[in-house]
Amino acid sequence: MLVRRIARPLLASTFVFGGIDTLRNPQSRVAGARPVVEKVTEQADKQLPVQVPRDVEQWVKIDAAVKVGAGTLFSLGKLPRLSALTLAASIVPTTLAGHRFWEAEGTAKQGQLIHFLKNLGLLGGLLLAAVDTEGKPSVGYRARRAAKRATESTEKSIEQAQKRAAKAQKKTEKRLKKASK
After folding, report:
1. Residue 124: its pLDDT value, please?
2. pTM of the predicted model as reported, rounded to 2 decimal places
3. Closest C-alpha among 106, 81, 26 to residue 58
4. Largest interatomic CA distance in the chain
5. For the chain, how many helices (H) and strands (E)?
6. CA contacts within 13 A on the Cβ side of 6
7. How far apart are CA 132 and CA 136, in angstroms?
8. Is 77 helix (H, G, I), strand (E, B) or coil?
9. Of 19, 28, 135, 160, whose CB neighbour count within 10 A is largest?
10. Dihedral angle computed from the Cα positions of residues 139, 141, 147 and 150, in that order, rounded to the nearest 10 degrees
11. Based on the number of CB atoms within 10 Å of its own CB, is 70 exposed (0-12), middle (13-18) or buried (19 or more)?
């Protein structure tokens, strides 16, 4: 559909541009990302059997590369649901790290709040894109339909087998009656 071909690159452009900018200059994002990365790595170290890297700049670069890759795939319509979901997952920590309006004062607070709400809007668009089946039935629908058809087919086969068994039993009973006379 034409709307998807236009809307996907428009939605992805923010992520691709921002990711490229961050890859070129990751230091500008490190200070804002530090509190989020520290919390995430602390929780990951408690729950994972391996130690997670703590280099904030490395995490910023990884996030930027994810945004460029997933944004490019999404804009081209390649794996659109997966790439939209990937972008949605990456925008949450970015928003929490970069737009902490609750910590700002005055006009800075207003600017951060606007960016925070903008990112929430982008997240909403990405979530819609992640569930967009382009008019085709979803995997869940197809699985339920296949299961229903398999159940109906099995039940039909069982009924037919029961009818044949009953018919064979009647024939056997008739033969036994004739043989006993």
Report:
1. 96
2. 0.72
3. 26
4. 108
5. 6, 0
6. 3
7. 9
8. coil
9. 19
10. -100
11. buried
| The two structure tokens encoding residue 90 | 């990456």
Is the pLDDT at 167 greater than 90, yes or no? yes
Exposed, middle or buried, 167 (CB in 10 Å: 0-12/13-18/19+)? exposed
Q: Which residues contact 52 (CB under 8 A, 6 or more apart)?
A: 40, 41, 44, 45
**CB neighbourhood size of 23 (10 A):** 15
33 within 8 A of 79, measured Cβ to Cβ: no
The amino acid present at 28, given as its one-letter code, is: S
> Is the CB of residue 10 less than 8 Å from the CB of residue 52?
no
pLDDT band at 83 (very low <50, low <70, confident <90, very high): very high
| Cβ-based burial of 76 (10 A; exposed 0-12, middle 13-18, buried ≥19) | middle
